[in-house]
């Protein structure tokens, strides 16, 4: 039968392991590391870069070098509320971009045609570069015809 002291030490060592475990905070459908400084941790959210993160922190009067894990729940709520009111992030931003591309294709603008054909949109040359953009689903159909 194990001694009572060993059971207590096993429980305390388990607590220490849990403390060392990396905490992740879930915000805008994204896991955010608690060990990173806030200005870099916010960049894990789709649609926020370091400049946007610095602006957010300046408006909310938060220290940008403070670790994300040290924030209180009220501060995290303030950050998320500010982001939702002033920025399109995550799924909303992706949906907005897709809708814009579909609109360009529908009105048959030059950019829309390039999107539809799977060619570079922003004026890049296609003679020697853009092989990744040019190849794709169209080449698969060609392989099936050959066989």
Task: Describe the fold and architecture.
With 147 residues, the protein is mostly helical. The protein has two domains: 71 residues, Helicase, Ruva Protein, domain 3; 46 residues, 30s ribosomal protein s13, domain 2 (Irregular). Helix content is 56%, strand content 5%. It has a two-stranded antiparallel sheet. Strand 1 and strand 2 form a beta hairpin. Helix 5 crosses helix 6. The longest helix has 17 residues. The protein is elongated. 10% of the residues are buried.
Total strand count, please? 2
State the name of the first-level CATH class of the largest domain.
Mainly Alpha
Shape: elongated
**CATH fold topology of the largest domain:** Helicase, Ruva Protein, domain 3
Radius of gyration: 25 Å
Main sheet overview: 2 strands, antiparallel
Q: Quote the average pLDDT.
A: 82
Count of spatially separate domains = 2
Measure the end-to-end span.
72 Å
Percentage of residues in strands: 5-15%
CATH-scheme architecture of the largest domain:
Orthogonal Bundle
Order of the strands making up the biggest sheet: 1-2
Structural class: mainly alpha
> Helicity, in percent?
55-70%
| SS field, number of helical segments | 8
One letter per element, helices H and strands E, the order comes to HEEHHHHHHH
Unreliable runs: none
Short description:
By secondary structure, the protein is mostly helical. The chain has helices spanning 4-20, 38-41, 50-59, 73-86, 91-106, 110-117, 131-134, 137-146; strands spanning 24-27, 30-33. The protein folds into 2 domains: 16-86, Helicase, Ruva Protein, domain 3, CATH 1.10.8.50; 92-137, 30s ribosomal protein s13, domain 2, CATH 4.10.910.10.
């Amino acid at each position: 039968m194990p001694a009572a002291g060993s059971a207590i030490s096993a429980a305390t060592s388990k607590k220490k392991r849990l403390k060392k475990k990396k905490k992740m905070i879930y915000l805008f459908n994204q896991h955010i590391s608690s060990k990173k400084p806030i200005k870099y941790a916010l960049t894990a959210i789709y649609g926020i870069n370091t400049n946007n993160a610095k602006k957010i922190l300046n408006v909310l009067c938060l220290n940008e070098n403070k670790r994300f894990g040290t924030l209180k729940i009220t501060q995290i709520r303030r950050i998320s509320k500010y982001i939702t009111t002033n920025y399109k992030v995550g799924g909303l931003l992706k949906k907005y971009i897709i809708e814009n591309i579909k609109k360009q294709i529908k009105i048959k603008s030059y950019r829309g045609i390039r999107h539809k054909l799977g060619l570079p949109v922003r004026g890049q040359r296609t003679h020697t570069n853009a092989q990744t953009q040019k190849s794709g689903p169209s080449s698969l159909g060609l392989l099936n015809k050959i066989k």
